[in-house]
Amino acid sequence: MMCPFSTAETPPANRPRAPLRPAPRAPWGAACALCALTLGAWLAPVGAAAQQAPTAPGSGSVTGAMTGAEFDAYSRGKTFYFAEGGTPYGAEEYLDNRRVRWSFLDGQCKEGWWYEEGEMICFVYEDRPDPQCWSFVRSAAGLIATYQSDPTLTELYEVQKSPEPLLCLGPQLGV
Asked: Looking at residue 149, what is its pLDDT?
């Protein structure tokens, strides 16, 4: 019997993936190894797609900054994977009522919410109450997000979007 978390066989892209959970009775060390393998399998397509992402602003046809309604219609119910300069950066799941779940692709997730402020979409997270404001534009390749506190610092590109929820491993418990 093949291990369900094996990376030897990649499921077809159109087959839905089941939620991944470590075995309930696995020792902590085994669960960590299992999660690392699982996370690696999920991130492989993101890394490959990141290499194909636009590398400069203005690549492809770009629209103006999205309004809150446009952003909500485009993102709600999906998980987006972002890259910066061809390197995987993070992923965000967009939920109902403008709620979000963010991860730096390490399996740890932060809950938050977003709101529209002028031409920006601002995010507030459970561990960071100060707003993180971005402008979002659509290009032929997908979203381009520019961090507005320092537009020269971070520009992220959509490399993949999925209807699947974000992989969150949960809190790490002490020994």
From this structure: 77
